[in-house]
Amino acid sequence: MMTEKIAVDLLKAAESLGITVWIGGGFGVDALIGKETRPHDDIDVYIDIKNADSFINMLKTKGYNEVEMEYTTLSHMVWQDSKGHIVDLHLMEFKEEDPDSLYFQEWTFPISLLDGNGTIGGFPINCFTAEAQLLFHQGYEPLEKDIHNVKVLCKTFGLEVPEDYARLISE
Length: 171
Fold this sequence. Notes:
Blueprint (H helix, E strand, L loop, with lengths): L3 H13 L4 E4 H9 L8 E7 L3 H10 L3 E3 L8 E5 L5 E10 L2 E7 L2 E4 L5 E5 L2 E5 L2 H7 L7 H14 L5 H4 L5
Parallel strand pairs: 1-9, 2-5
Antiparallel strand pairs: 1-2, 3-4, 4-5, 5-6, 6-7, 8-9
């Protein structure tokens, strides 16, 4: 279980190294709302690929080891410590010749997806916008936590419930 305290400790460590971090997933949703709305198994951390070595070294010094999962790639990896705290690390690329875009795996997204701001345990963070969070919660069979995230996003920010979720979310 990833707690707010552990998450904030990791974010402060990254900040002390000069690494800009954006938070996605459940913690990203809760950050936008400003409070924890459910327990979290992990924290989804997005960083510039240029900072990967420094961030990974920081994780290692905190006792995290890489865990290979069926979905891991060179730009999406999972790190876990001996207490079960999980960091889902996503490496994005920014290109000088295309300053309005960010690149993740084979996809290109508008940089404005990173314009979200929020807090985790009172600590200010960068995160995806509510609209981006909603976008990234689509295209797969949702779990209960995904349904919760989408419901909270739509209710809090007045967003339309995506068609994939309409049958799963009852008011």
